[in-house]
Amino acid sequence: MTTTEPSSALLQVRDLRTTFDTPRGTVVAVDGVSLDVDRGETVGIVGESGSGKTVLSRSALGLVTARHATVTGSVRLEGEELVGRGPKEMREIWGVRAAMVFQDPMTALNATMRVGDQITESLRHHLDMGRREARATAVALLRSVGIPEPERRIRAYPHQLSGGMRQRVTIAIALACGPRLLVADEPTTALDVTVQKQILDLLDHQRRERAMGMVLITHDLGVVAGRTDRVAVMYAGRIVEHGPTRALFHERRHHYTDGLLRCIPRLSNPGHTRLQVVPGRPPDLVDLPPGCPFAPRCPAAQDRCREETPTLTDVGGGHQHACFFPVGTPEGEEALARNRSQDGTNRTTEVAV
Amino acid sequence: MAALQPLDDAVVADATGAGEGAPAVAATTAAGPAAGARAGRRARRRGFGVAFWLAVAWLVLVLLAAVTAEWLPLADPYLPDVSAKLDGPSAEHPLGADGLGRDQLSRLVHGARVSVTVSLSAVGIGMLVGGVLGTAVGYLRGLFETVVMAVVDVMLAFPSLVLLLAVLAYVGRSLTVISLLIGVLSIPVYTRVARANTLAVAQREFVLAAYTLGATRRRILFREIVPNVALSVLAFGLVAMGVVIVLEGSLAVLGLSVPAPQPTWGDMIATSKTHLDDAPHAALIPSAAMFLTVLSLNFVGDTLRRRLDVKDAGL
Fold first, then answer.
1. Residues 6 or more apart from A259 whose CB is under 8 A from it?
2. How far is A122 from chain B (nearest CA, A)?
3. Is residue B233 within 8 Å of residue B187, measured between CB atoms?
């Protein structure tokens, strides 16, 4: 299995599966995901709400501790297995070797503590720093994340800072103990556009400077485009396409990726062009029907797609996709054409399937 | 190259020249501290408003009266002055006299002592026990929670006035017993408030953030959750003080408060209510004192809650 391949990957996720037992049935939130993150590399995870991005990242870091959740598979951080560890053992990992940046800086900071205390706490706890040393480090950290006048801000409470500043503080907290892996879960979703760029630049800069591996989770393909080395597109808890960012954008194979990219309005479009959408909604993750989970929404879906589940296949250059009739291939075009000719006659029955 | 941009988001406009690294910081923030300090001062000056400070002043006055009652140059609250019976305000009795000719001002000031003692100790007991219990239960969950909340529900379902009457009749009436009883009876309410807030706070991202930084459960409880829950419990306690003061009054009307002749506001109202026709001031003055106190408590509690509520404060 995984032990046979001597991978140097910083984070190595193999066949990770996270399920939740609910009164309605078992929800398979992450379904057999494998992913590597190398040192100094940024991997983007893209998908709609509910596609399993967040659960994937939280399962990988052992943060899914709900009583009704089951996590199986393997997650290795610097070669050490994390799945099956209890919170006690994970505490040596969290903060020091892997840290997270959260979506909403409004809620990710404790409103009753000064910003400085929130940073120095983990420094003193994990790195056994003295009060003065921790304070000096906190000031340096705040300065490095671009907070002006860190000596003064260190005494501020979160509500005295703007949204962008708060996100800088959460990044400083996450970076405090020098983690090797940084997981940023939609770090810019709650910020306005001008600040988004600054925060992404900051994360990028820190990643390069510290040679950290970074996982950037987002639903915004624009965020992923310029700042990741590789991208994994998730749908219904699975990775449906995965590859180097450039290859994935230029030679997308999966119809879901294609649909997502088509959704981005272009400035070159004439005025009043209808916005493209991926029709339908993500499937219910309780009792997924057999076949490709995207089939009900796929423009190229064939009978085979509703019976068999495609697995990730490599098309060279580390580019993988899980589709029987990939975009841009003869089979794919043929399938699209076939569906288009049936359109109008069979459409309603197809949707019903 | 995507340089690290040390931009203060508030002063983005000033920072167009921001280059790489630290030197730019000084230039960026030239306008920062002054503007920040000014905004801070304005917020402080805008403050709480006159009504809030009037309410606080009244509460401080009541508290001072309760503490210093014995040393104030007042008439003896127990000494009847038969000639002044039910008189209105006069030089000798600034707030008049009651049905037995006792000085109303003196009784009002001494009565404040009972109201303050009962409300402080009852709220203290309820807040401490209920707050700790509710927070613990909300954080630890599990069987412990099920059991405690079941007990709390039973206590809430039990008519508390009946229990009060029974225990007071059996144990006897004294300031200590009344304070203790009201305190114990209010525990379930605080437990519920603290538990509900704990559940909400424990869901917030900063708790998860602390967890992912390797914080222990104990540290999360005391550093992340308790400070956030304490504020809401405290604000609730202030409002509850008013309820306790009124409750003492109700007990007095039923003849179950502190035994006579010790003056309490409730007792003053209860004994003077028969004279509403000929001497309304005898009952109205202590009523007004109670009314003002409860109103002030509610007002202060509400304002503080609004000010201190982390969500309303923009977080």
1. A276, A278, A297, A299
2. 7
3. no
Token pair, residue B63, equals 């508290």
How far lies A190's CA from each of A71, A158, A200, A205, in Å? 29, 15, 13, 21
- Between helix B104-125 and helix B265-272 the angle, nearest 10°, is 130
pLDDT in tens, A263-313: 887 777 777 777 777 877 778 888 787 889 898 888 888 888 888 889 888
pLDDT in tens, A123-165: 888 888 889 999 999 999 999 888 989 999 999 988 888 888 8
**Contact yes or no for B228 and A110 at CB 8 A:** yes
CB contact under 8 A, B310 and A112: yes
Q: Please list the helix, strand and coil fractions of chain A in percent, rounded to the nearest 5, in that order.
A: 35, 20, 45
B185 CB burial (10 A radius; 0-12, 13-18, 19+): buried
- What percentage of chain B reaches a pLDDT higher than 90? 23
The pLDDT assigned to A344 comes to 55
In 3D space, the residue among B185, B194, B138, B144 whose CA is nearest the CA of residue B166 turns out to be: B185
Contact state of B9 with A195 under an 8 Å Cβ cutoff: yes
Tell me the whole-structure pTM to 2 decimals: 0.73
Chain B nearest CA to A139, separation (Å): 12
- Rounded to the nearest angstrom, the minimum Cα separation between B94 and chain A is 48
Closest to B213 (Cβ–Cβ): which among A94, A106, A195?
A: A94
Q: Do B25 and A149 touch (CB under 8 A)?
A: yes
In chain A, the residue whose alpha carbon lies closest to the alpha carbon of B40 is: A160
Q: Does B211 touch chain A (CB under 8 A)?
A: yes
Neighbours of A340 (CB within 10 A): 11
Token duo for residue B140: 């630890």
Q: Among all residues of chain B, which has the CA nearest to that of A204?
A: B2
Tell me the nearest-neighbour CA distance from A104 into chain B, angstroms: 8
Is B4 within 8 Å of A205 when comparing Cβ atoms?
A: yes
In this predicted model, what pLDDT tens digit does every residue of A39-62 receive, in sequence order? Answer: 999 999 998 888 888 899 989 988
CB A19 within 8 A of CB A25: no
Ordered alpha helix ranges (H), B23-103: 23-28, 32-46, 50-68
Question: Which of A34-38, B90-94, B134-138 has the lowest average pLDDT?
Answer: B90-94
